[in-house]
Amino acid sequence: MSQKIIPDIGADVVARPINRVAVIGAGTMGAGIAMCFVNADIPVVLLEINASALANGTARISENYAISVQRGKLTAEQVERRLSLITTSSDYAALADVDLVIEAVYENLDIKRDVFRKLDLVCKPGAILASNTSYQDINLIADVTSRPQDILGLHFFSPANVMRLLEVVRAAKTAPDVLLTVVSLAQAIGKIPVVSGVCWGFIANRMYEPFGREACRMLLEGATPSQIDAAHKKFGMAMGFCAVADLAGLDVIHHSHVAVAEKFAHDPSYHALIHALFERDEFGQKTGRGFYLYEGRNSRDNPDVMAIAAERARALGIAQREISDDEIIERCLFSLINEGARVLDEGIAYCAADIDTVFVNGYGFPATRVGPMHFANETGLDVIVGKLDAYRQRLGSYGEMWFQVAPSLRRLAEQGQRFL
């Protein structure tokens, strides 16, 4: 199976043994990652900056397991066994003998590079060092160490102890046996690994970015969050974009954009509504206000959103109008597919099936449609190109910015070929 996932790894490559794992960071993500390993009977060292942070992390893990016991999925004895496999520390020296370290600290490149400098000093030769990041440049992280061959990215999806997809990010100098080891280990802990090259957002977030970009732009143009989400769900998505954004945290999305502001600086409307809500400290579910208002698990429309959207639209010179569900799907989904063509062309993903695996298992893309690239093949690449060209012309300067058809997509369409 690993040969299929990593086509250029020779049969003579041997995986390294992984008997003990460390996780740096005991927040929501780090705690979930730790659970993934102890669930597979692999001991974990959980490292945090102080005893209070460690206590919060272990309490979070215990609460998650308590829910599993209440639901009858685990026994108290099983939970006790798993908790016994976790040791905690605030001292990097405790990581001297682990075989794999997964850094899960704040999504900031400087902080992550500092962590890896410390790991380089304390970890044994041959230990694999991984960053749990959703968009940072793994090469820039590897370069601060003396062992770039042992470093790669592991993008767990939240909640890490539930979601099965795992993006394995292969850096420029990642050794073949390191990649094979991590892919095999992912399968052993019940994950579905997909190997990605290094770029902003890797496969998943890079392709989902234009999907969300178009959703947010159409909010400025007159669509409502509930209309956007209803159209996405009608297509078969598990959740619509606005609900996903509220769940992930509008603050997280805002900061991810700020980190690469130059990438989107040419479009003053880019995610303007999310940034406006961030300025009001409305981050989504965590604050009870975002695209929607929340009372527990129940949500309803936030009446302020459309007023803010109208005000921002006026300031940006964007005319508001009626938007159809078909336009919502075409602009969001076909933009995602267009970016997928670029991802394939650049070798970031090995094949279209890997992209489909990412979106079915990581973003709730309807399994009945197999995945976005398969959907594009079935729809007809010529149809996709025709729609993208039409929106480029219809949307004026905005269309010229964002609806340029990827050269490889246009070529395949003209030749009557399919994504492979």
Please specify the SSE layout and strand pairing:
Elements: H1 2-5, E1 21-24, H2 28-38, E2 44-47, H3 51-70, H4 76-84, E3 86-89, E4 100-103, H5 109-122, E5 128-131, H6 138-142, E6 151-156, E7 165-169, H7 176-188, E8 192-196, H8 204-221, H9 225-235, H10 241-248, H11 250-259, H12 261-264, H13 272-279, E9 292-295, E10 298-301, H14 303-316, H15 325-345, H16 352-362, H17 372-379, H18 381-394, H19 396-402, H20 407-414
Parallel strand pairs: 1-2, 1-4, 2-3, 4-5, 5-6, 7-8
Antiparallel strand pairs: 6-7, 9-10
Helix pairs in contact: 2-3, 8-15, 9-15, 11-13, 13-14, 15-18, 17-18, 18-19, 18-20
Output the keywords.
20 helices; 420 residues; 8-stranded mixed β-sheet; two-stranded antiparallel sheet; single chain; 10 strands; alpha/beta
Outline the structure in words.
The protein has 420 residues and is of the alpha/beta class. Helix content is 52%, strand content 10%. The protein has 20 helices and ten strands. It has helices spanning 2-5, 28-38, 51-70, 76-84, 109-122, 138-142, 176-188, 204-221, 225-235, 241-248, 250-259, 261-264, 272-279, 303-316, 325-345, 352-362, 372-379, 381-394, 396-402, 407-414, and strands at 21-24, 44-47, 86-89, 100-103, 128-131, 151-156, 165-169, 192-196, 292-295, 298-301. The strands form two sheets. An eight-stranded mixed sheet has the order 3-2-1-4-5-6-7-8, with helices on both faces. It is globular, with a radius of gyration of 22 Å.
